[in-house]
Amino acid sequence: MHSGQVKSNYYLVFFLCILSSSLISSCKNEPSAASSVSFKFPEQGQTVAIGKSIAIQLDVPQNMNLKSATYLIDGKKVAVKNTADSILIPTTNFSVGYKIITAIVVNGSAKDTITVNIVMLPGSKPELYSYKVKSVFPHDTSSYTQGLEYHDGRILESTGLDGSSTLRWVGLETGKTLQKADLDKKYFGEGSTLVGDKIVMLTWQNGIGLVFDAKTLVQKSSFPYQASREGWGLCFNGKELIKSDGSNRLYFLNKDTYEEERSIEVYDNDGPVNSLNELEYIEGKIYANVYTKDYIVVIDPNSGIVEKKIDLSRLLEKGYNRKSTDTNIDVLNGIAWDRKNNRLFVTGKKWPKLFEITLVPQ
Questions:
Q1: Are residues 303 and 120 in contact, defined by beta-carbon separation less than 8 angstroms?
Q2: What CATH code would you report for 127-361?
Q3: CATH 2.60.40.10 residue spans of the chain
Q4: Quick check: helix, strand or coil at residue 16?
């Protein structure tokens, strides 16, 4: 993203959806006329740290003929019991985020289903890192950086802003544009990534992604978004595209059809990490800018847990001054990885420099 503040309406809708889901689940957790069964625990909205077991127990009237209780978490069967005794479900391999616990209760010949929501949180805080600057390269201050990748001595960069979005190949050493394609003025450009002989690029609120020939930068096709509402960041793990949409959710897309096949929620120990922006896949982990923040989070792609937090504050200020007109938009954004030489590059929107950094544990 973008210019100005994060769009608050998007998160309001997201919050209302979660609230609505919780209220519906709370209603379902009320004893029904048929079964009079409810959850004794866990409580609605209870948080559980990954690594801790989930304790589940039903509240069953003494005169009920409980034949069986089948327990599911997010639709996957985890236990079957013929008593109301409590059970413990291990969570070592769980992902973070909202989980729906379902109990299918058979009472004689009657059957009823009740649900309750819980929230899985990481069991520990992220490791904290700072940085050391190894090298500094020039960066085009007209480039409102949305996507950044390193490939064989060149930088693949996509830029945004209404009416002036571009896709370009840039020389690392010079910072000069080697090849450029201007997007149709109706598009606000976003993240991009190289997939074989194609470049896949997102648009912000147009609801479509664009596909270009990597050599000519000629657009070949486009595709619609599905569950993801906007386009923010994009990277490629060698098998799937990984897409952010400004929430705390990451979407995994088929590299050939661009269908969203699965998603994860991203949490640290304090809760959901929203405004996930530019992405880079590095040695099995997802590195993500957080829009308007001077840090990068490192995410486990299986669990959604933020494992590391890299503080890059004061990176731009070392000898470089913001333009007064760009104060609200020249934020940290852009992560690129040189896999062959293990080099990490970062920059920001309209920054005058691109930095090669190494990480320093705090």
A1: no
A2: 2.130.10.10
A3: 8-121
A4: helix
Contact call for residues 162 and 184 (beta carbons, < 8 A): no
What does the alpha-carbon distance between residue 155 and residue 140 come to, in Å, rounded to a whole number?
Answer: 12
Evaluate the CA torsion angle 322, 323, 327, 330 in order and state its sign: negative
> Is domain 8-121 given the CATH code 3.10.270.10 in the classification?
no
**C-alpha distances in Å from residue 314, one per residue of 25, 49, 83, 158, 189:** 45, 33, 60, 24, 27
Q: Show the 3-state SS of 51-86.
A: CCCEEEEEECCCCCCEEEEEEEECCEEEEEECCCCC
Look up the pTM and report it: 0.86
Mean pLDDT in runs of 10 for the chain (362 residues)? 46 42 43 67 95 94 87 96 92 94 90 94 96 96 96 97 95 97 96 98 97 98 96 98 98 98 96 97 98 96 97 79 64 96 96 96 95
Q: CATH 2.130.10.10 occupies which residues in the chain?
A: 127-361
Give CA 204 to chain center in angstroms.
15
| Residue 359 near residue 344, CB atoms below 8 Å | yes
